[in-house]
Design brief:
This protein has no helices and 15 strands. It is mainly β. The strands form three sheets. Strands 3, 4, 5, 6, 7, 9, 11 and 13 form an eight-stranded parallel beta sheet that branches. Strands 8-10-12-14-15 form a five-stranded mixed beta sheet, with no helix packed on it. A two-stranded antiparallel ribbon has the order 1-2.
Protein backbone atom coordinates (compact mmCIF):
# COMPACT_ATOMS: atom_id res chain seq x y z
CA UNK A 1 0.00 0.00 0.00
CA UNK A 2 1.45 3.35 -0.99
CA UNK A 3 -0.63 6.25 0.23
CA UNK A 4 -0.38 9.44 -1.86
CA UNK A 5 0.22 12.83 -0.27
CA UNK A 6 -3.04 14.08 -1.82
CA UNK A 7 -6.35 12.52 -2.75
CA UNK A 8 -8.57 14.53 -5.09
CA UNK A 9 -6.48 17.65 -4.50
CA UNK A 10 -6.82 17.43 -0.71
CA UNK A 11 -3.76 16.74 1.43
CA UNK A 12 -3.84 13.54 3.44
CA UNK A 13 -3.28 14.58 7.06
CA UNK A 14 -4.50 11.61 9.09
CA UNK A 15 -4.81 7.84 8.96
CA UNK A 16 -8.04 7.19 10.82
CA UNK A 17 -8.54 5.08 13.91
CA UNK A 18 -8.64 1.36 13.07
CA UNK A 19 -8.59 2.03 9.30
CA UNK A 20 -6.52 -1.07 8.48
CA UNK A 21 -7.08 -2.88 11.78
CA UNK A 22 -6.54 -6.63 11.49
CA UNK A 23 -5.78 -6.59 7.77
CA UNK A 24 -4.16 -9.99 7.29
CA UNK A 25 -3.06 -9.36 3.69
CA UNK A 26 -1.26 -6.00 4.03
CA UNK A 27 2.49 -6.70 3.64
CA UNK A 28 4.00 -3.24 3.13
CA UNK A 29 2.88 0.31 3.79
CA UNK A 30 4.46 3.56 2.58
CA UNK A 31 3.10 6.77 4.03
CA UNK A 32 3.99 10.24 2.72
CA UNK A 33 5.62 13.09 4.62
CA UNK A 34 3.20 15.71 5.89
CA UNK A 35 0.89 13.48 7.90
CA UNK A 36 -0.22 14.87 11.24
CA UNK A 37 -1.47 11.67 12.85
CA UNK A 38 -1.52 7.93 12.44
CA UNK A 39 -4.47 7.39 14.75
CA UNK A 40 -4.94 4.67 17.34
CA UNK A 41 -4.99 1.10 16.05
CA UNK A 42 -4.72 2.31 12.42
CA UNK A 43 -2.56 -0.71 11.49
CA UNK A 44 -2.94 -2.76 14.65
CA UNK A 45 -2.86 -6.56 14.30
CA UNK A 46 -1.77 -6.45 10.63
CA UNK A 47 -0.07 -9.80 11.11
CA UNK A 48 1.38 -10.02 7.57
CA UNK A 49 2.88 -6.49 7.61
CA UNK A 50 6.65 -6.75 7.11
CA UNK A 51 7.63 -3.19 6.20
CA UNK A 52 6.44 0.28 7.21
CA UNK A 53 7.98 3.38 5.69
CA UNK A 54 6.65 6.55 7.28
CA UNK A 55 7.83 9.64 5.41
CA UNK A 56 7.00 12.03 8.22
CA UNK A 57 4.22 12.39 10.75
CA UNK A 58 3.70 14.55 13.81
CA UNK A 59 2.38 11.70 15.98
CA UNK A 60 2.01 7.93 15.86
CA UNK A 61 -1.02 7.21 18.03
CA UNK A 62 -1.75 4.62 20.68
CA UNK A 63 -1.40 1.01 19.53
CA UNK A 64 -1.07 2.20 15.90
CA UNK A 65 1.05 -0.81 14.87
CA UNK A 66 0.46 -3.02 17.92
CA UNK A 67 0.72 -6.73 17.17
CA UNK A 68 2.29 -6.43 13.72
CA UNK A 69 4.26 -9.56 14.53
CA UNK A 70 6.12 -9.79 11.18
CA UNK A 71 7.14 -6.10 11.02
CA UNK A 72 10.88 -6.32 10.43
CA UNK A 73 11.65 -3.04 8.67
CA UNK A 74 10.52 0.26 10.16
CA UNK A 75 11.64 3.53 8.62
CA UNK A 76 10.47 6.63 10.45
CA UNK A 77 10.81 10.08 8.92
CA UNK A 78 10.30 13.12 11.11
CA UNK A 79 8.07 12.17 14.03
CA UNK A 80 7.64 14.10 17.27
CA UNK A 81 5.62 11.67 19.40
CA UNK A 82 5.32 7.89 19.46
CA UNK A 83 2.27 6.96 21.53
CA UNK A 84 1.40 4.29 24.06
CA UNK A 85 2.28 0.81 22.77
CA UNK A 86 2.44 2.19 19.21
CA UNK A 87 4.81 -0.58 18.11
CA UNK A 88 4.18 -3.04 20.92
CA UNK A 89 4.63 -6.76 20.15
CA UNK A 90 6.31 -6.14 16.79
CA UNK A 91 8.30 -9.30 17.48
CA UNK A 92 10.34 -9.38 14.23
CA UNK A 93 11.67 -5.81 14.57
CA UNK A 94 15.47 -6.09 14.98
CA UNK A 95 16.82 -2.62 14.32
CA UNK A 96 15.37 0.68 15.40
CA UNK A 97 16.58 4.03 14.12
CA UNK A 98 14.56 6.79 15.73
CA UNK A 99 14.57 10.07 13.81
CA UNK A 100 15.99 13.35 14.99
CA UNK A 101 13.16 15.57 16.15
CA UNK A 102 11.51 12.83 18.23
CA UNK A 103 10.52 14.45 21.52
CA UNK A 104 8.25 11.93 23.27
CA UNK A 105 8.42 8.16 23.44
CA UNK A 106 5.37 7.20 25.48
CA UNK A 107 4.48 4.33 27.81
CA UNK A 108 5.33 0.85 26.44
CA UNK A 109 5.99 2.28 22.95
CA UNK A 110 8.10 -0.73 21.89
CA UNK A 111 7.02 -3.24 24.53
CA UNK A 112 7.65 -6.91 23.67
CA UNK A 113 9.70 -6.27 20.53
CA UNK A 114 11.62 -9.43 21.34
CA UNK A 115 14.08 -9.34 18.38
CA UNK A 116 15.18 -5.74 19.03
CA UNK A 117 18.89 -5.64 19.96
CA UNK A 118 19.96 -1.97 20.07
CA UNK A 119 18.41 1.49 20.25
CA UNK A 120 19.98 4.92 20.04
CA UNK A 121 17.63 7.64 21.13
CA UNK A 122 17.85 10.99 19.32
CA UNK A 123 19.36 14.05 20.97
CA UNK A 124 16.02 15.89 20.90
CA UNK A 125 14.20 13.26 22.99
CA UNK A 126 12.77 14.89 26.12
CA UNK A 127 10.42 12.22 27.51
CA UNK A 128 11.04 8.48 27.73
CA UNK A 129 7.90 6.76 29.00
CA UNK A 130 7.48 3.98 31.51
CA UNK A 131 8.46 0.53 30.23
CA UNK A 132 9.10 1.89 26.73
CA UNK A 133 11.22 -1.20 25.95
CA UNK A 134 9.82 -3.64 28.49
CA UNK A 135 9.87 -7.25 27.32
CA UNK A 136 12.54 -6.54 24.69
CA UNK A 137 14.51 -9.59 25.80
CA UNK A 138 17.22 -9.35 23.09
CA UNK A 139 17.91 -5.66 23.77
CA UNK A 140 21.56 -5.16 24.68
CA UNK A 141 22.27 -1.44 24.33
CA UNK A 142 20.32 1.76 24.83
CA UNK A 143 22.00 5.14 24.60
CA UNK A 144 20.10 7.95 26.31
CA UNK A 145 20.58 11.55 25.14
CA UNK A 146 21.79 14.49 27.21
CA UNK A 147 18.55 16.44 26.70
CA UNK A 148 16.31 13.84 28.33
CA UNK A 149 14.15 15.67 30.88
CA UNK A 150 11.64 13.04 31.97
CA UNK A 151 12.66 9.45 32.46
CA UNK A 152 9.53 7.72 33.70
CA UNK A 153 9.40 4.19 34.76
CA UNK A 154 10.42 1.31 36.83
CA UNK A 155 13.75 1.47 38.61
CA UNK A 156 16.55 -0.85 37.60
CA UNK A 157 16.61 -3.90 39.89
CA UNK A 158 19.78 -2.76 41.62
CA UNK A 159 18.31 0.61 42.53
CA UNK A 160 18.00 4.05 41.03
CA UNK A 161 20.43 5.52 38.56
CA UNK A 162 21.71 8.78 40.08
CA UNK A 163 19.81 11.99 40.87
CA UNK A 164 16.32 10.51 41.20
CA UNK A 165 16.40 9.18 37.63
CA UNK A 166 14.73 5.86 36.98
CA UNK A 167 15.40 3.53 34.13
CA UNK A 168 12.77 1.96 31.98
CA UNK A 169 12.29 -1.79 32.27
CA UNK A 170 14.43 -3.39 29.58
CA UNK A 171 15.55 -6.84 28.50
CA UNK A 172 17.54 -9.28 30.64
CA UNK A 173 21.13 -8.21 29.85
CA UNK A 174 21.57 -4.57 29.09
CA UNK A 175 24.28 -1.97 29.01
CA UNK A 176 22.81 1.43 29.77
CA UNK A 177 24.70 4.62 29.12
CA UNK A 178 23.12 7.64 30.78
CA UNK A 179 24.41 11.15 30.29
CA UNK A 180 23.05 13.57 32.90
CA UNK A 181 24.68 16.92 32.40
CA UNK A 182 28.42 16.28 32.66
CA UNK A 183 27.90 13.19 34.78
CA UNK A 184 27.97 9.95 32.81
CA UNK A 185 26.87 6.73 34.45
CA UNK A 186 27.51 3.35 32.85
CA UNK A 187 25.51 0.50 34.35
CA UNK A 188 25.40 -3.16 33.44
CA UNK A 189 22.19 -4.95 34.43
CA UNK A 190 22.10 -8.73 34.54
CA UNK A 191 19.08 -10.93 35.14
Amino acid sequence: LELPAEIGGTAVKKIGSGLFYYSTTLRSVRLPAGLELIDERAFSECTALEEAVIGGVTAVGECAFLGCTKLKTLTLGGVETIGYSAFGACRALETLVLPSGLKRLELEAFRDCTALTAVELPAELEVLGDAAFSGCTALQTVVLPDGLRVLDGRAVRDGDVGRDAHMVAFGRHLDIVVAIGVEVIHLHVAA
